[in-house]
Write a structure and sequence with these properties.
9 helices; 9 strands
Amino acid sequence: MSDRTNEKTVQLDLETYAAKDVYQAAATQQSGLRHEQVKERQKQYGPNRLKEAEKEPVIVTFIKNFTSLMAILLWVGGAVAILSHSVELGLAIWFVNIVNGVFSFVQEYRASQATEALKKMLPSYARVIREGQEEKVLAEELVPGDLVLIEEGDRISADGRVIFATDLQVNQSALTGESNPVYKNSEADTDSQKTALEYDNMVFAGTTVSSGSAKMIVSATGMATQFGQIAHLTQNMVDDKSPLQKELD
């Protein structure tokens, strides 16, 4: 079994296996995982959810935009102008400082809400087969190797390898921006030149089933999914200076 691990996340490479061989590659069986296996993998890989970077309180972020070195210089500059009887100039400097601070805060706040927005695109529940029985479980309880059932209208909870499909089409616009549904099948694909999103036998968290139904084996959960990688990028964006900050520098 080929996999790439990162702390408690795992991403199984199941694209090249024939459907009948995926079970062994994912260390599962046609009746699904046993409950003991699920508990072990939940401990090993953690919950199937997007992790959030540590965030400082909103009030702290707001205040920092008015107490940076640049902001302090503007406060002082405005005060000096007022004391020099240039009241209008001083007030103008303070006004610019306030506008810049509010603008910067709004930008930072919106960026901090990106993960929350992504979370809303993931479903709360999933249908799985465990020990031969169909169950409805919390999506965050899914683990690699889980056997999941999906059908038209479902939002997909984790990345997975399709092992059986009936006229399956998936809307992947959340990941690729492409609005047209993509046909999916259970055939093995050995083309190593494809990117992860190009495999027709793989489905991904955050996407929606446009038509048909399928059975899939989970290959990645949480931050190891393609959706999780997008969340990681949004959390690690480097804050750029505003045009005013650049000009003042």
